[in-house]
Amino acid sequence: MNWRKWLRILHRDFGYFIVGITLIYAISGILLNHRNDFNPDFRIVTQNVKIDLPPGPPFSEQALKPLIENIGDFVVFKRAYMTKHGNLKVFIHNGEILIHPETGEGELEYLQKRIVFFEMNMLHRVATHRSWKWVSDALMVILIFVTISGIFILKGRNGFMRRGVWFIVAGVVIPLVYMIFLI
Fold first, then answer.
1. What is the pTM of this model?
2. First to last CA, the chain
């Protein structure tokens, strides 16, 4: 069996193997590229709330805690203080509540994970279990193999020495231009 045939077999099988992981890295890469345009991990949820506050101000944090945590299961009270405008500002896990003491009405803002995207981005950043680093490294080695083996699979007028070399040169020149002139 010649070496081109082995390259085709390995290129195909490794290519099939990395489809899922490559898609996760590609999609999360697009999301992370636009992290200055929007938060790819969380979305901000805003909702109006009404709380029956105890007499005050001042409000004791012990009295506020059960009232605030009664809003929902996800609300975990941290701290509270009165703003200079006379509103009650309450910090909760992943958010805050601004309450008008006279009416007890307020606005709750909190961060909510973007389902699937959050997890994909964590994998992309290798911010999960330490073992994922080795899975990620193995993927990169396989990608390097698939990339290099792809160069030598085709021969003839569509092969590397005729058509392929120009695409490879373009693929190298574009990042070099960015590295030299824009970084």
1. 0.69
2. 47
Q: How far apart are CA 60 and CA 68, in angstroms?
A: 12
Mind listing the pLDDT tens digit for each residue in 98-152? Answer: 999 888 899 999 999 999 999 999 988 888 788 888 988 999 999 999 988 888 8
Tokens encoding 34: 């636009």
pLDDT per position as a tens digit, 47-82: 999 988 877 778 778 888 888 888 888 888 999 888
Angle between helices 3-17 and 19-33 (to 10 degrees): 60
Q: Where are the domains of the chain?
A: 3-39+116-182, 42-113
The residue assigned the tokens 């029956």 is 52
Contacts of 71 (CB under 8 A, 6+ apart): 49, 51, 97, 108
